[in-house]
Amino acid sequence: MQDEAYIKVSADEQPRERSICGFRQRLLKKDDGAPASITRLRTDDATPHWHKRTDEYYYVLSGSGKLVIDGEEVPIKAGDCVWIKPGHVHHAEGDLESLIIGIPPFDYEDVFVEAPPEAGGRR
After folding, report:
1. Which of 27, 33, 76, 110 has the lowest tally of Cβ within 10 angstroms?
2. Residue 45 in contact with residue 22, Cβ under 8 Å?
3. Which has the closest alpha carbon to 86: 63, 117, 62?
4. Is the full-model pTM beyond 0.85?
């Protein structure tokens, strides 16, 4: 796929799978050779977690709720975009459908549920 001029992905053709944050469809991923991962997510019983390397951008497609980042509640609704930097514990709550953009692309080895080693979680 990497030699092609473009990659087209249809969300309707992607499997829905359970993740730490809810139910996702992985649109572009590390295995595609993409410089970012893009995931469509329906929030459901999300577990607080953090990343050492990945910046995450949550763009809310529909619904409303909140992101809890280092204990701070950030209200979100359709049309909002929130950048979560590496090292910060976060999870989403509410009736939300979002696009999650990860740079570098999402990697299972970069997901941690235990507290970050430093206070405040800065990298």
Report:
1. 33
2. yes
3. 117
4. yes
